[in-house]
Amino acid sequence: MKLFSPLAVNSMTLPNRLVVPAMVTRLSGEDGFVNQPITDRYVRFAQGGAGLVVLEAMAVHGSKSGPLLRISGDEFVTGLRDLASKMHDAGPGKCAPQIIHFLKISRTGWRQKVQDLSVAEVLAIPGLYAQAAVRGLQAGFDAIELHMAHAYTLSSFLSRHNGRRDDYGGSLQRRLRLPLETLAAVRAAVGANVPVGIRFDGEECVKGGYTLDEARVMALRFAQYGVDWLSISAGGKFEDAQPREGEPLYPYTGYSGERCMPGRNYPPAANLYIAAGIKDHLRQHGLFTPVVATGKINRPELAEDILQAGQADLIGMARPILADPDWPRKVQAGRFDKVIRCCYANVCKAKDERFQTVTCFLWPRGAIQAPQSTDTTPPVWPAKGAALVADISQARVSLKWNAAEDAEGVYGYDIWRAEGTSPPQRIDAVPGAVHAYHDSNAVAGLNYRYFVQAYDFAGNRSVASSEVEVSMP
Ligand SMILES: Cc1cc2nc3c(=O)[nH]c(=O)nc-3n(C[C@H](O)[C@H](O)[C@H](O)COP(=O)(O)O)c2cc1C
Q1: Which of 23, 321, 342 to mutate to test the pocket of ligand 1 (most atoms within 8 A of CB)?
Q2: Do 308 and 249 contact (CB within 8 A), yes or no?
Q3: Strand ranges (DSSP E) for 269-411?
Q4: Contacts of 263 (CB under 8 A, 6+ apart)
Q5: Is 296 in the pocket of ligand 1 (CB under 6 A)?
Q6: Domain interval for residue 162
Q7: Which CATH number characterizes residue 464's domain?
Q8: I want to staple 262 with a disulfide (CB 3.0 to 4.6 A). Which of 229, 270, 280, 371 is the partner?
Q9: Which atom, in ligand 1's list, is nearest to the CA of 316?
Q10: Residues 57-83 pLDDT 10s
Q11: Are residues 333 and 393 located together in one domain of the fold?
Q12: Does any ligand 1 atom lie closer than 6 A to the CB of residue 24?
């Protein structure tokens, strides 16, 4: 598979094409130091075998925030060095911190905008990124990713909502100025051979925001300035965030937030056209900067098709790797059937929003890390069988079944549905304590077949339950 082929990115060679994009864990305290739970989370990601793990956004400056890692002073280097070293020992992949500058927000709903920054404050930003990048190298990371996506400072300069009237706002060239100066400052500080990537929005996904049209040009300029990879995200903006009384605005609560972390109601690879459009534009200009596509990509065939079709060079998987850090290792061994599959319930997103430890809805209740097991015996149905039944009420199909049994415990159930004569699709998953499911997406005029499969902590699946057939009235 191309997915498991290496890729040279400047001086580093990624062992495969899988990237874990940055995902805030909220495991650090507000002091921003690396601690044991953070180490455990990233060592686990590294063990899982992804080609590149980008560590959660860490602040380049001292501004107050909720729990967030920091790289804003030399005092943070020791902890980060220990983390990088443990990640290198744990797996074959490379690791890079994502470094971020953000503006101030308050519980009153007020937020600082780029037009509120003095010129001196603007001019200080490239240096803050450059110093943080150097600290990242001192800590032993293989590469550095500059956060220019979502609601944060550099993204807000790129934005069409940048309200500055000086050389840093207005025309596209002016909006690009600070991000390019930042890239240049980082490059000057780390040297030509250190891989430096940028994550930015390929579409803002807010009214009046920029779209792929301008993002293509931004990508081209970043590539011309020598960036080593472009990781394409979308949305996550303050402009359409939903205010909540007494809480700071969270930039993933509006439509643009949904586009950033597409939930159950979005199709697979929902944002792929953006990365593909950017890559195509770069190639038309003779530039071969690797492009990372992310957003609801979690089946190996889909990832492989994207790479084979040349729509992206690398595949980003955030929530799927949170759900099962061993996705890369299992899939490389041909065992996708053992992967615990993300169901895009976005509980992780909701936890991030509340500054709570980011965990996965599918993990056992109370767990702060993904479970691990070497068990090889799959769950079994009880003697009375799964006895799956379906009931139609309120124009939805309600399924119920008997609990499966497993020596270590049943971790969850996959819900499978076939429409008419089409092959069954796994439509969702529920945690092991739940033996019921409501399908609200069945409509009259179509026939459905359902079955469920139990899985254990190692991802061993039971045989399929008995099936039920349903015709909606
Ligand atoms: C809990 C959580 C935290 C995130 N934190 C970051 C972050 O720090 N930086 C970033 O660029 N993206 C962040 N993202 C966005 C992801 O990197 C990714 O783009 C998004 O989840 C869509 O990819 P997926 O469908 O593979 O999950 C976060 C996403 C989640 C769910």
Answers
A1: 23
A2: no
A3: 291-294, 314-316, 389-393, 396-400
A4: 344, 345, 346
A5: yes
A6: 2-353
A7: 2.60.40.10
A8: 270
A9: 26
A10: 999 999 888 889 999 999 999 999 999
A11: no
A12: yes
